[in-house]
């Protein structure tokens, strides 16, 4: 068998358990109410993906995929306006410190409990960091400037440093107007270039135009919530570079459908040149759900080809958009590049139990959060409630873990019965240390986990757990992950623990880059000491 998330990061005696060590560490046994409730406004807007109006405000996603993504043309005009104003050369911000730290949150802005639950643990872990980056979808559902006071300024009022961002597809549903006003101090309402063809009248009529910008309301929100001098920052554009002596951080704007325009492609090649180690932050991940999505560049080439080019010295690529955590250490010649999905910063959770046994990297080197078994258990309870069939659907975490183990043929990340991994089996080092160092051999006389019941196997199949590495057609599956978002998202949101959200802390020194993924359960027990679900240290020399 292979190992799914077989080893937890090393824990100190006073560190909390995590999802790999116990169900309590995963948040299933939540004993104390989270303090994030006290941070929320008295009246929270009724944001729900079940509402037709919310889906209608997101219609530009469908139009862009059917008739062509206009983001490239809009972006070129925005960048030209920024250049005329006198933006920084190469869209580059310089930092002189060799050692620094920053937080990274992906897909944050629903404005409800799932977003606010991330705030206390992130502020706790990031209290001494130098800045924060939001990777994709700052504001749901459509990136309007009117939503920034309650979904950006208020939640992060306690973070003392500046916040930068790369836009996601939802930020583009407003033509990027709200994003540019808040992060780049530019108010520009750019209509898309006219569509061509016999059906061009359809996107012209249906395309959602940007909402108004209330300058006085934005100014009040900024002064009230993030008005300290250390919190204020203006980034040079929707794509940018943070250049430091040890590491160059490159943020790109992937529009609605994941590609970048010709001008941004030329800029990316230029800033990627040279021997300095580099980290890519992107609105769309390059590896996700055991699949490569290389990111097309207008005129030819891909973003991933630039990342893998040995002359560019990329060590990692982190993307949002998918609302969970995944990490793929991928070999590229004689080096390993860490491809990370980090979209658990506040929006509804995308399932991990639908991820097949990995092929792009060895299964024992793959990491995800939530664990596949926890994801299946959470979704089984969700569908049991929605369909009013709890006796059929509801799987305990142990039942779900056994079903995932059975269908995928992997060793689960959290053991039951003794033969699966345990906290005592933790080993220091990187996943590349090899399976022998990471996966403990079963001990003589240990009980083998029970074979899952027929009901558990049926629910696992119905909710999309693949069979091994094969994706079998023929069986009807409920909309968990593969259906378009406008159908599946309404079934994939909840506002009570465990939330299974996450965020990253990145620590940079002259010699190394350390990336840690911290879990957000929503339980008060985990706010002060958030569980560390994964970590990797990358040499920079």
UniProtKB/TrEMBL annotation:
Protein name: Calcineurin-like phosphoesterase domain-containing protein
Coiled-coil ranges from the UniProt annotation: none
InterPro entries (UniProt xref): Calcineurin-like_PHP, Metallo-depent_PP-like
Domain spans labelled Calcineurin-like phosphoesterase: 101-195
Lineage of producing organism: Bacteria, Bacillati, Actinomycetota, Actinomycetes, Streptosporangiales
Species annotation: Actinomadura viridis
GO molecular function: hydrolase activity
Renumbered residue ranges of the record's region Disordered: 1-27, 412-434
């Amino acid at each position: 068998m292979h190992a799914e998330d077989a080893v937890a990061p090393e824990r100190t005696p006073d560190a909390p358990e995590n999802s790999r060590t116990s169900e309590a560490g995963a948040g299933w046994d939540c004993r104390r109410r989270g303090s994030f409730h006290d941070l929320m406004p008295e009246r929270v807007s009724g944001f729900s993906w079940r509402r037709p109006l919310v889906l209608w405000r997101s219609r530009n996603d469908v139009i862009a995929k059917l008739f062509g993504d206009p983001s490239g043309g809009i972006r070129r005009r925005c960048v030209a306006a920024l250049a005329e104003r006198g933006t920084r050369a190469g869209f580059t911000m310089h930092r002189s410190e060799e050692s620094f730290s920053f937080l990274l949150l992906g897909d944050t802005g629903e404005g409800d409990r799932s977003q606010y639950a991330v705030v206390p643990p992130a502020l706790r872990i990031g209290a001494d960091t130098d800045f924060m980056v939001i990777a994709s979808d700052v504001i749901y559902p459509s990136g309007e400037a009117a939503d920034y006071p309650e979904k950006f300024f208020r939640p992060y009022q306690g973070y003392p440093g500046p916040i930068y961002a790369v836009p996601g597809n939802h930020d583009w549903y407003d033509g990027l107007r709200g994003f540019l006003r808040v992060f780049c101090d530019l108010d520009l309402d750019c209509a898309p270039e006219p569509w061509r063809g016999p059906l061009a009248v359809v996107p012209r009529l249906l395309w959602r135009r940007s909402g108004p910008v209330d300058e006085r309301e934005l100014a009040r929100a900024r002064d009230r919530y993030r008005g300290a001098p250390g919190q204020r920052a203006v980034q040079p554009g929707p794509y940018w570079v943070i250049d430091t002596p040890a590491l160059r951080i490159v943020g790109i704007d992937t529009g609605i459908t994941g590609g970048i325009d010709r001008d941004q492609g030329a800029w990316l090649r230029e800033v990627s040149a040279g021997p300095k180690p580099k980290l890519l932050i992107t609105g769309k991940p390059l590896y996700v759900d055991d699949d490569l999505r290389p990111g097309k560049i207008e005129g030819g080439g891909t973003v991933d080809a630039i990342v893998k080019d040995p002359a560019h010295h990329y060590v990692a690529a982190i993307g949002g958009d998918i609302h969970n955590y995944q990490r793929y250490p991928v070999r590229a010649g004689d080096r390993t590049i860490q491809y990370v999905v980090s979209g658990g910063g506040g929006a509804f959770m995308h399932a991990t139990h639908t991820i097949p046994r990995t092929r792009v990297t060895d299964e024992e080197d793959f990491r995800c959060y939530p664990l596949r078994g926890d994801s299946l258990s959470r979704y089984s309870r969700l569908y049991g409630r929605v369909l009013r069939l709890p006796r059929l659907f509801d799987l305990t975490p142990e039942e779900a873990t056994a079903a995932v183990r059975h269908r995928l043929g992997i060793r689960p990340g959290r053991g039951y019965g003794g033969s699966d991994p345990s906290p005592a089996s933790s080993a220091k080092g990187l996943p590349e240390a090899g399976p022998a160092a990471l996966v403990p051999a079963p001990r003589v006389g240990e009980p083998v986990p029970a074979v899952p019941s027929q009901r558990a196997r049926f629910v696992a199949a119905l909710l999309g757990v693949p069979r091994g590495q094969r994706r079998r057609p023929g069986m009807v599956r409920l909309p968990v992950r593969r259906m378009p978002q406008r159908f599946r998202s309404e079934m994939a949101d909840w506002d009570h623990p465990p939330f299974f959200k996450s965020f990253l802390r990145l620590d940079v020194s002259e010699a190394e880059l350390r990336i840690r993924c911290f879990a957000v359960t929503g339980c008060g027990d985990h706010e002060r000491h958030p569980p560390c679900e994964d970590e990797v240290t990358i040499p920079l020399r």
